[in-house]
Specification:
By secondary structure, the chain is α/β, with parallel strands linked by helices. It is built from 15 helices and 25 strands. Bound molecules: adenosine-5'-diphosphate (ADP).
């Protein structure tokens, strides 16, 4: 027997039309190099329709790739909807990738047009001769400086959309591609994930669930996470869908500016990677942060010490989430549930330091890496985390590497090693490639560095495995000391003694000025490994 319900497509047009119809007076605010731009969803919607008409006037193919090389701004939000709602595919380029990676992904995706902020042209313009399919560059004046690219038609965003009448939207196939995003490619070339209207629609609803991030109409959302990093974690779509006020940081990504915006715009929900929140915390001192209700954070493990420092200073712990470009990205969120009621505060802090429970719609499991056997959720068994669900990738765009990332039954192999608790909380032990393999046993670099970062004199710490003649690998701790503080190797090891198993204690501690970061602000273990490539541990002769 079949149901009797209507079959209506889950397209982004519906999210767009809600903002246009239901919330036309709500604001989209963008910080610029020179001040703040404000307009309403009503004006945003009108401009978005004109932009779609402009894509027609430029002759962009019906499913042409529309690339952006841009900060988080209202204009970027116009592109987020004008491209997919007119049938095209939005392709957000990561502005911090190496030049050759940008060239690779622009050519691989066959981008036809690139929309670029003026202040970013210095990075993009020199690459123009390497792009094979780009026919137009549209410059968005953001108050910054940058050279016009040569050898391609250069247009001005405002002139372009000012010359158009608003377009009608008509996408009705929910399986149509809406946008694409490449992984940041820590090894090899980046891999492309293509989201459908349906997957984005459902992911947006996932981000709006109260037991997830819970974006709602009364929120004031500050996506510090870039719009090119895994769909700004769904916040741009969820902001539009719910009618939340959106506060876009533009090029103002420095901690003091972010803290100012949180206070002056009464931000309720601000999301970014841990390194962002490490920098912002001191800037929040003495400010009114009473509007904040959640600080979603992910991309790499949130140190318990960081979350607790937020709880101590502003009365609000960090809300950890786990995900990947391949998972749209929000897949699990560490809300404390009533299942855990009655736990003492320090154990609740451990729960918040986990990666949380799967969001409704997402299935997670752990599997033995050697045999593929599915492992129990007993809080002990470690295995590769695998994911399935309607907003999880089933493959990569035009890439021979797809098969190795998926199981025979279609689950995504995440490359993360995890433990699941009986209550369904995921605890990421490490990335497979970062785990320190010591004498056949595993040491979690994540756990070790989080313990080091609990030391009051430590600003940042990253742990890597370094070759060892007897144990295969042993941990090397790379530590950044807070300004004005002094710390010795012995003090670090002494601090860890009793906090981690004896055989986990790092064989050496080196003090560095800064942990290198990836293009999306995560600790770059790869760069650290390169830097300490020929490092000989003092224990190597033991
Ligand atoms: P990249 O692989 O280039 O870093 P992604 O942003 O897609 O690009 O990264 C996804 C990965 O980030 C996950 O597989 C996981 O290793 C890590 N990650 C994301 N969120 C968390 C988290 N809350 N805790 C630990 N690791 C996380």
């Amino acid at each position: 027997m079949q149901g009797t319900m209507q079959d209506r497509p889950l397209t982004l047009n519906h999210l767009f039309e809600r903002a246009e119809r239901l919330n036309p007076t709500k604001e989209v605010v963008t910080a610029t190099a020179t001040g703040v731009d404000r307009y309403t969803y009503g004006e945003w919607a009108d401009r978005t329709r004109r932009l779609a008409a402009a894509l027609d006037s430029l002759g962009i193919s019906p499913d042409g790739r529309v690339a952006t090389f841009a900060w988080n701004t209202g204009r970027h939000l116009e592109l987020y909807f004008a491209a997919p709602c007119s049938g095209r595919v939005l392709h957000t380029l990561n502005i911090r990738l190496f030049p050759e990676q940008v060239t690779y992904i622009v050519n691989h995706a066959e981008d036809e047009v690139i929309f670029v902020d003026r202040s970013l042209l210095g990075l993009l313009a020199p690459l123009m001769p390497t792009f094979r399919t780009v026919r137009h560059v549209v410059v968005m004046e953001d108050g910054g400086q940058g050279p016009d690219p040569e050898g391609v038609e250069v247009l001005d965003y405002e002139e372009l959309i000012g010359a158009q009448a608003p377009a009608e939207f008509g996408v009705d196939d929910e399986y149509r591609a809406a946008s694409m995003c490449y992984t940041s490619g820590t090894t090899g070339n980046p891999k492309g994930v293509v989201y459908t209207h349906r997957s984005t629609f459902l992911h947006t609803m996932g981000a709006m669930l109260a037991d997830s991030v819970g974006v709602c109409e009364s929120d004031v959302v500050l996506p510090v996470v870039p719009m090119f990093h895994a769909n700004a974690w769904g916040l741009a779509h969820a902001g539009v869908a719910s009618g939340a006020k959106l506060v876009m940081p533009g090029p103002n990504m420095v901690p003091v500016k972010l803290a100012e915006m949180i206070e002056s715009e009464d931000v309720t929900l601000a999301a970014g990677v841990p390194t962002i929140w490490m920098g912002v915390l001191p800037e929040l001192a003495g400010r009114d942060t009473s509007s904040l209700r959640a600080i979603p954070c992910g991309g790499s493990a949130v140190p318990k010490a960081l979350s607790e420092a937020y709880r101590a200073q502003i009365g609000l712990p960090i809300l950890q989430a786990w995900g990947m470009t391949e998972t749209s990205p929000v897949a699990s969120v560490a809300n404390v549930t009533t299942v855990l009621e009655g736990l003492p505060e320090d154990e609740l802090a451990d729960v918040r330091a986990s990666q949380g429970r799967p969001v409704l719609g997402v299935e997670l499991r752990i599997a033995d890496q050697a045999t593929g056997e599915i492992l129990p959720w007993d809080g002990q068994s470690r295995g590769e985390l695998q994911a399935a669900g309607p907003w999880i990738a089933a493959g990569y765009y035009d890439d021979p590497r797809s098969p190795e990332s998926f199981t025979d039954d279609g689950w995504l192999k995440t490359g993360d090693v995890a433990v699941m608790t009986p209550e369904g909380y995921v605890r990421i032990v490490d990335r497979t490639k970062d785990v320190v393999k010591s004498g056949g046993e595993w040491i979690s670099s994540v756990e070790l560095e989080n313990e080091i970062m609990a030391h009051p004199k430590v600003a940042e710490a990253a742990v890597i495995g370094v070759p060892h003649p007897k144990w295969a690998e042993r941990p090397l701790a790379c530590v950044v000391v807070k300004p004005g503080e002094e710390l010795t190797k012995e003090e670090v090891v002494e601090f860890l003694d009793g906090r981690v198993a004896k055989w986990w204690l790092p064989d050496d501690v080196v003090f560095i000025d800064e942990v290198p970061k990836t293009s999306v602000g995560k600790f770059s273990k790869k760069d650290l490994r390169d830097r300490f490539d020929d490092y000989t541990l003092p224990t190597a002769g033991d």
